[in-house]
Design the sequence.
């Protein structure tokens, strides 16, 4: 009697243990390095949210190679040294088969040699400094625009439609901000605009009055600003406090719901160039926005889409590779033909994506209204 | 000339804010000889608590400020009596390690509860531009300058004129003599840290209404506060004010006439010069005990 009672339980137990063990073994791991603390932590977190949404959608459809996909997330703080440590940990200890990261261009630049060293594919949906794909690193893929591509797509719109002639350039003082300013200045100057001011500020700057004083004195009719949510929102708010009417055109995450919430009425009329806006009208985007809003109670921003795309592209490549062998995944990545919420992605020989859409939005009464759409071509 | 006036005004306003955010740090150091590395994090708690009370619970701004001051004072008192008490008299390193540990703990707890999103404390005053001749300021900024002056004056009077303040000064001049004359020195240490924490929290909430309150800005706040304290002299109120103004104005002028890109370097350049020329700061009372 006792035995007959105990036996099924024992069997169940062993079976259960076996199941757990089997599940623990049978996941395909992807490493995600994002800034979860520091001045761009907010943006890093939205990337993670997008990535998790993609992960759950993939797993709901049966995962990859008959196994569940697993995401292991590390905080790179947008700093090169911390991001390298995070990548080393993910590769050596967690044995991930691919990496997504590391947000800031300078951090991604530092992780790239690590990925090449261990022969692990690395994809970024965020880092837009043009030089990254010029390094000849065959393990690196970029599923977003570069500053140069964005500048090329938008300079004409700024010149023809917004009629900017005397331009002030303001950027955050890092590779991305300086790169963005340099590229836009080059394209705008080629079209015949003059540069009246060029200034940089540090990540986490809380007071822009000095910059705004200079902007007012420069007589610019438009200001190009490369900044992320936190710095950008403070800039826009203080510009309104300061009472200057200069048109503002921003790159970075300017069309997110949090940006709009933080800036309130002062964001009225601001222009932003974004590779993604939640108001883009494609069927894929509608489905993505619905799923995202249902889960996170806010509309997805640029980086939510970036994280979502990066994980989907990796999962798609692993499926087509038919194995977790790094070389095969890399091979599959080069043949990517993925359609995300913001259009199609294909990689060229340098690992740079093209074919997807970028939009110019204007913030009107707290809604990013798409005023022009153009696709990124080589 | 207009440019200069505007830059000067910006610098003076920011300088007052720097002075306010450094006040708690200089007070705790001057009186207790405790280098509080968790100062910036107390500022963060003040800002986030202020945001939660006003934006989330709909409390009146000034009522919320009073609650923030009270809560932070309680936290400061508890931190001293439960933690710093245990390492008192063991030299400076244990307290430094303790406050660094505390700062990490607070940051991560705040991240867990509030997350990374920057939050804004709604200001009771207009943030529309106000034109004073060629100079632009906003009501909310002028109000903050006034509040800073009031807080600095209030803290000064508390320490110089009240019985509690006299007991504080007595305790830190000679603990034994203070005990002999009936002062409960253990409590006095607690009250001093409570005052420092309350000032940090008030600064966090006040400045959160024109900048942002965010879990991760504590480090930056501490860094600037250290610059102000070293410039002005550790433990000096006048020093904190002058140090803050010097930092604010020199950052504004450097940013305005040279480049805004490396403006954070100015503060540290000033610190290096100050350490070479007057290592105890502009206003230090060189009352080092034997």
Sequence:
């Amino acid at each position: 009697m006792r035995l007959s009672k105990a036996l099924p339980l024992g069997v169940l137990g062993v079976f259960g243990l076996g199941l757990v063990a089997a599940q623990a073994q049978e996941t395909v791991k992807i490493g995600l390095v994002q800034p979860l603390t520091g001045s761009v932590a907010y943006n890093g977190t939205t990337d993670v949210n997008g990535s998790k949404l993609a992960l759950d959608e993939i797993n709901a459809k049966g995962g990859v190679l008959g196994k569940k996909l697993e995401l292991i997330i590390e905080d790179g703080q947008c700093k090169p040294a911390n991001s390298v440590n995070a990548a080393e940990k993910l590769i050596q200890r967690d044995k991930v088969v691919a990496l997504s990261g590391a947000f800031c261009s300078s951090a991604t630049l530092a992780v790239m040699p690590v990925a090449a060293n261990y022969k692990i594919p690395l994809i970024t949906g965020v880092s837009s400094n043009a030089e990254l794909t010029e390094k000849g690193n065959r393990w690196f893929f970029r599923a977003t625009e570069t500053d140069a591509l964005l500048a090329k797509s938008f300079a004409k719109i700024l010149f023809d439609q917004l009629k900017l002639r005397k331009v002030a350039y303001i950027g955050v003082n890092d590779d991305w901000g300086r790169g963005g300013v340099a590229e836009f200045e080059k394209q705008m100057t080629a079209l015949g605009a003059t540069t009246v001011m060029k200034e940089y500020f540090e990540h986490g700057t809380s007071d822009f009055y000095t910059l705004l004083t200079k902007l007012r004195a420069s007589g610019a009719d438009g200001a190009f600003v490369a900044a992320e949510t936190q710095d950008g929102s403070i800039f826009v708010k203080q510009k309104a406090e300061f009472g200057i009417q200069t048109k503002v055109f921003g790159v970075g995450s300017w069309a997110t719901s949090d940006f709009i919430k933080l800036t309130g009425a002062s964001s009225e009329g601001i222009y932003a160039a974004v590779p993604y806006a939640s108001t883009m009208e494609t069927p894929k985007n509608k489905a993505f926005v619905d799923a995202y809003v249902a889960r996170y109670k806010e509309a997805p921003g640029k980086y939510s889409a970036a994280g979502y795309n990066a994980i989907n592209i990796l999962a798609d490549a692993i499926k087509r590779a038919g194995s977790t062998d790094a070389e095969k995944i890399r091979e599959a990545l080069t043949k990517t033909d993925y359609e995300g919420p913001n259009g199609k992605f294909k990689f060229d020989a340098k690992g740079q994506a093209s074919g997807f859409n970028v939009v110019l939005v204007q913030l009107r009464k707290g809604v990013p209204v798409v005023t022009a759409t153009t696709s990124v071509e080589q | 000339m207009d440019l200069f006036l505007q830059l000067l005004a910006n610098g003076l306003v920011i300088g007052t804010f720097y002075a306010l955010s450094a006040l708690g740090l200089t007070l705790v150091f001057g009186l207790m000889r405790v280098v509080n590395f968790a100062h910036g994090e107390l500022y963060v708690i003040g800002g986030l608590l202020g945001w939660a009370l006003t934006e989330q619970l709909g409390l009146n701004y000034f009522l919320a400020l009073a609650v923030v001051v009270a809560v932070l004072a309680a936290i400061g008192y508890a931190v001293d009596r439960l933690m710093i008490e245990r390492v008192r008299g063991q030299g400076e390193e244990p307290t430094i390690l303790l406050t660094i540990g505390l700062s990490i703990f607070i940051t991560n707890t705040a991240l867990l509860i509030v997350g990374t999103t920057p939050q804004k404390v709604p200001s009771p005053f207009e943030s529309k531009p106000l034109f004073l001749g060629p100079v632009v300021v906003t009501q909310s900024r002028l109000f903050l300058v006034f509040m800073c002056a009031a807080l600095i004056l209030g803290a000064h009077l508390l320490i110089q004129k009240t019985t509690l303040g006299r007991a504080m000064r007595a305790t830190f001049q000679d603990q034994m003599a203070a005990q002999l004359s009936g002062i409960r020195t253990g409590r006095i240490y607690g009250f001093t840290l409570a005052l420092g924490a309350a000032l940090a929290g008030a600064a966090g909430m006040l400045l959160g209404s024109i900048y942002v309150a965010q879990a991760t800005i504590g480090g930056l706040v501490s860094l600037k506060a250290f610059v102000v304290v070293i410039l002005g002299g550790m433990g000096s109120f006048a020093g904190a004010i002058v140090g803050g103004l010097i930092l604010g104005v020199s950052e504004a002028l450097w940013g305005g006439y040279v480049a805004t890109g490396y403006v954070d370097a100015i503060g540290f350049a000033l610190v290096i010069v100050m350490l070479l020329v007057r290592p105890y700061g502009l206003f230090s009372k060189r009352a080092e005990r034997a």
